[in-house]
Amino acid sequence: MRKKFLVAMLAGSMVASMAACGTSDTKKTTEAPQTVATTEEPTTAAKTTEEVTTVEETTVEETTVEETTVVETEEETTVAETEEETTVAETEEETTVVETEEETTVAETEEETTVAETEEETTVVETEEETTVAETEEETTVVETEEETTVEETEEETTVAETEEEATGEETTEEAIDGTGIKVGMVTDVGGVNDGSFNESAWTGLQMAAEDFGVEVNYMESKTDSDYAPNIETLIDEDYDLIIITGYMLADALREAAELYPDQTFVIIDDASNAEFENVTCMMFEQAQASYLVGLAAGMATETDTVGFVLGMESETMNQFGYGYLAGVLDANADAKIEQFNANSFGDPAIGKTAVTNMVTEGADVVFHAAGGTGLGVIDGCKEAGIWAIGVDSDQSVLAPETVLTSAMKRVDNGCYEAIKAYLKGELESGVLTYDLEMGGVDIAPTTDNLSDEILEAVEAAKEAIIAGEIVVPNNKEDFEEKYGDVYVLDSEE
Fold first, then answer.
1. N or C end of the chain: smaller count of CB under 10 Å?
2. For the domain 287-410+452-484, what is the CATH code?
C-alpha cells in the first residue's frame, strides 16, 4: 500500500509541476506493464512528454525529447529481479558491480523504433561472435596441426617401435628354436677332438647348438683311417638325425653311407666331392683368403727374410692354405724365402716339432702350420726356438701367448652351428655351401697383441681390397703360378 501511495503522490506531483510550468497538454498516468530485462539485449524505454513508465523496485532512466525524469526511491537500493533471478548483492565486505553491455535506446519520436539500433547491436554481437568463432577456428586449426604433428611423430615412434619389435621378434624366433629330441653326431678325423684346431672348432659349434637349441650332441673320435666307416655306422644305428663329418679324409666313407642311407642327413666339412647326393651338404671355406692375410703378417714380421710352412697332408683342399700363404708373404716381401714341409699327418705333434727345428736351421723366424694336431708340435717347437708361430682354424694364441703371432681362422664352429640351426628350421640344403671373408667364414684371429700397427693397417687394407674384389687370392695351382711362378712345391703330385 505504501508503494502505491508513493507512486500516486509522485504522479500527482509531476502533473502539478507540469501544470505550473505552463504545460497545456497532460495525459493521465497509468500503471505501465512490468518490463523484464534480459542479458545482452538492450532495454528500450520510449518516453513521450505525456507518458512515464515506472517499474516496481527498478529505477529506469526515462528520456523524453525535452527532459529526463529520474525516479528515486527512499530505500536507495534498486534490485532488478527478473524471471532468471539475477541478483545484484551489495555487502559491507564486497560490492559486486554487474556491468552489462546493454544500452538504453532513446526513442526520439513516437514513430521511431529501436529495431534498427537493436539490429545494429545484434550485428555487432554477431560480428564479435564471428570473430570469436574465427579465432576459435584458428586456434582449433593450430591445435589440430599440433595434434597432426603429434600423430605423425607418434606414428614415426610407433614405426620405430614396431621395427624394433620385429627385429626382437626375429631374434626371439631364432632363440626359440626347439631342438629337444633331435640328436646330432660328429665323426672326427685322426687329429682328434682335442687337436686345438679343426676338429675342436667343429665340436665347439655342436656344443653351442646344444646350449641354444636343446639338441643332444655327441662325437665319435677316429684314431686311424679304418675307424671312419664304423664310426659313421654307429651314429646311424643309434638314430642320430644329423651327422657331421669333419674333413675331406672321410669323403670316401661318407659316399658309401650316403648311398646306403638316402634318408640320413649328412654334413661334411672341406669336401665338395659328395655334392651330388641330395642328403649331403658340403661345407667349404675360402681358407686361401685367411692364409693370405697371415702371409702378409709373416712377410712383414720376418727379420731374416725367411719363413716356413708346415702342411698336415697334401690335397687340393689343403693346398689352398699354401697358395694363400705364399701369395701373402711374397706380396709383403718379394725377397722372402719360404721353407715348406708336408707332415703327411694331422695327428703327429713330434713330426711337427722336428719340421720347425729344420726350418730354424735354414734361418726361418716365422712358421705357419695347417696341420691340425701336428701343428701343436709346430707351436711348441717355435716356442723353444724363440721364433714366431702362426696358428690355424681357431685363435691359437691361448696355447702360447708370447709365441703365436696370429692365426688364420676358419670358422668351422660357426659353420656347424648354422648348419644345425638350418636343419632344425627345415632349411638345410644339399650341395656346396661356401663361407668366405665377406661372410665372416674366415679371418685372422681377434687377438692382435703381437702385431705392430703397421702390420694391422696392412692386413685391414687387404681385407677391404679382397671383399671389394680388388685383390683376388689364388686358391689353385694355375692361378697361383700365373702370378708367382712355381715356388709352391707341395703340390707336385697334382
1. N
2. 3.40.50.2300
